[in-house]
Design goal:
Distance between the termini: 42 Å
CATH architecture: Up-down Bundle
Radius of gyration: 18 Å
CATH topology: Methane Monooxygenase Hydroxylase, Chain G, domain 1
Helix content: over 70%
CATH class: Mainly Alpha
Number of strands: 0
Largest sheet: none
Structural class: mainly alpha
Number of domains: 1
Strand content: under 5%
Shape: elongated
Number of helices: 5
Oligomer: single chain
Length: 131
């Protein structure tokens, strides 16, 4: 089994190096490539901490309470990411649509509903504070 990747002290540097390699091409000024890689890295790190904290503090306790096997956690993390992005943050998709999709992908509907309810509370708190 491959080693699990974790966000560590070198993750940001490694991500920035990869971004630099992706954008570097002969003829493009190196200053511009560095700036793009830096901006891309900033965008990457800005969302990671928040989503990871929500995962650990809100979703994992639900999965543990529902006795979901850890081998299924990735499925529920994918659901959380999509639900947060499309329903809570952007508001472009109905929550029921995302729940229906992930139920079709093997998620337990009652667990998905509990997670969605918890994530919707984040939306309410965000709106209450004028964000």
């Amino acid at each position: 089994m491959p080693r699990r990747k974790r966000f560590g002290v070198t993750s940001v540097d490694r991500y920035q190096l990869k971004a630099y390699r992706v954008h570097y091409m002969p003829g493009i000024p190196e200053d511009l490539v560095r700036a793009v890689a830096s901006n891309q890295t900033s965008a990457f790190t800005a969302g990671f901490g928040t989503f990871n904290r929500i995962w650990r503090e809100k979703v994992v306790p639900i999965l543990e309470d529902e006795h979901v096997p850890q081998m299924d956690y990735a499925k529920y993390r994918g659901f959380m990411n999509e639900y947060l992005s499309k329903v809570v943050v952007k508001g472009t998709t109905a929550g029921e649509e995302i729940i229906r999709k992930w139920t079709g992908l093997g998620g337990d509907p009652s667990v998905l509903m509990r997670i969605a309810e918890e994530l919707n509370m984040l939306k309410v708190k965000h709106e209450e504070h004028g964000g």
